[in-house]
Write a structure and sequence with these properties.
The protein is an alpha/beta fold. The protein has helices spanning about 75-80, 100-115, 125-135, 150-160, 185-205, 225-230, 275-280, 330-340, 365-380, 405-415, 425-430, 445-450; strands at about 5-10, 15-20, 35-40, 70, 85, 90-95, 120, 145-150, 165-170, 205-215, 230-235, 245-250, 260-265, 270, 290-300, 300-315, 320-325, 350-355, 385-390, 390-395, 400, 420-425, 435-440. The chain has 3 domains: about 5-40; about 65-275, P-loop containing nucleotide triphosphate hydrolases (Rossmann fold); about 280-450, Ribosomal Protein S5, domain 2, CATH 3.30.230.10.
């Protein structure tokens, strides 16, 4: 009798494989993430099917700027490291409805107008639905081809026949490989589908964009091994009900990581935000306590954002602390520094700290801004409108240096700020800046005295 197909268990979070079900994944330590799937038979390749390979020296490999395609969208080109690399595999993730398909369709519009041959493959929308969305964006040329299909065998044949410059797969969770017994969207299907697209991208020198759905925890649905297989991972961030979107490069084999592009959602699609600092500071209240402007670095781009704090007397035995857009534990730590080093009795006060605009900020340079906003709200004394602060705060109350202070001060000057409070060790690197008063501080006490 023929043996039945063996079952294996995959972790849906990280892709770890086990021969039996486990309650906790030994790799990522997540609970109840293992699912049962049929083991795929190992594909044996005969000697005749093996292709000839050639070993070359590193110095003999030639590269030029023609290996990149400019999309015409500067924010996207910056995140990609200067354009789309030919033969690259790019994963675009984000919450449903945040604008992944819209952005990629806009890229197809720009590249098709530049004479590139493009193939948009959708497994979720019909041709009419794609056409309705395209009508809002404007005119498209004849270089854009559409395909509604989920079978990988059919898709592979069409890509090999058409040989386009770029392919968009929307989305990877809908693709189905008939050789794999599991259902579409499962761990095995997603991994095998991505592997096929990687072979097509490298074999035919075609740039392929893959859309990946995001779970409620904020990770791409399917195994984390998907992120290791692709060349670039882009994440869309931001509230789908807000007007702005942030495209962040999490992984990039052809450029720097943590670069961001800022977009605004409009009726005709996603529009670039050329000056995100000005966009984030729009609507800032005047002469209000607990409000301060800080500067953070997103990749190589400085961004000014407003940190707000509201400190009020607690009516309960346990004071309430809330942090939106900031690390909750970091806010508690900085409040403890203020209470210990400056004697502010914050243990009996509620504190609510927020980044205006809904953006998330994890850089240590925001520490001084958080401290200044909390102290301003506690003393009910507003900080001057033309003051900007940045610096890392240590447990002893010292203000430590941060990276790239020159770019931060230059961005503040461009937006009209007159005073900059920064770590004293960074003053020498900044030097003298016309029109901006640079104040170096050693401790949070000196910073609050200078700003308040």
């Amino acid at each position: 009798m023929a043996k039945s197909k063996k079952s294996v268990y995959f972790c849906q979070n990280c892709g770890h494989e086990e021969s039996k079900w486990l309650g906790q994944c030994p790799a990522c330590k997540e609970w109840n993430t293992f699912v049962e799937e049929k083991a795929a038979p190992a594909a044996s390749r005969s000697v005749k099917e093996r292709r000839e390979v050639q070993v070359v020296t590193l110095s003999s490999v030639e590269t030029d700027e023609d290996d990149r395609m400019l999309t015409g969208i500067e924010e996207l080109d910056r995140v990609l490291g200067g354009g789309i690399v030919k033969g690259s595999l790019v994963l675009v993730g984000g919450d449903p409805g945040i604008g992944k398909s819209t952005l990629l369709l806009q890229v197809c519009q720009r590249l098709s107008a530049a004479g590139r041959k493009l193939l948009y493959i959708s497994g979720e929308e019909s041709l009419k639905q794609i056409k309705l969305r395209a009508n809002r964006m404007g005119e498209f040329t004849e270089n854009l081809y559409l395909l509604c299909e989920t079978s990988l065998d059919v898709i592979r044949g069409i890509i090999e026949q058409q040989k386009p410059d770029m392919v968009v797969i929307d989305s990877i969770q809908t693709m189905y490989n008939e050789e794999v017994a599991s259902a579409p969207g499962s761990v095995t299907q997603v991994r095998e589908s991505t592997n096929i697209f990687m072979q097509l991208a490298k074999g035919f020198n075609i740039s392929i964009f893959i859309v990946g759905h995001v779970t409620k925890e904020g990770t791409v649905a399917g195994p984390r091994v998907l992120e290791h297989m692709v060349d670039t991972v882009l994440y869309f961030e931001g509230d789908r009900h807000a007007s702005y979107r942030i495209l962040r490069g999490v992984k990039n084999r052809f450029g720097s990581t943590n670069e961001i592009g800022v977009f605004e959602m409009r009726k005709e699609g996603l529009a670039e935000v050329k000056n995100p600092s000005e966009f984030m500071l729009s609507g800032k209240p005047e002469h209000a306590s607990g409000s301060v402007v800080a500067c953070a670095m997103e990749g190589t781009r400085p961004m000014l954002m407003e940190i707000q704090a509201l400190v009020c007397k607690s009516n309960f035995g346990m004071p309430r602390r809330t942090a939106a857009g900031l690390d909750y534990n970091r806010v508690n730590l900085l409040m403890a520094v203020l209470e210990k080093r400056l004697g502010l009795p914050l243990s009996s006060y509620d504190a609510y700290v927020n980044i205006a605009g809904g953006i998330r900020l994890n850089e240590p340079a925001a520490d001084l801004g958080i401290v200044m906003a909390i102290a301003s709200s506690y003393k009910n004394r507003p900080i001057a409108e033309d003051v900007i602060v940045f610096g890392e705060v240590g447990l002893s109350g010292e203000v430590r240096a941060v990276t790239m202070p020159e770019q931060r001060v230059a961005e503040a000057k461009k937006l009209g700020f007159k005073t900059c409070v920064l770590p004293e060790v960074s003053v020498k690197a900044v030097g003298k800046v016309d029109g901006v008063t640079v104040i170096g501080v050693k401790s949070v006490g000196e910073a609050i005295s200078a700003g308040l």
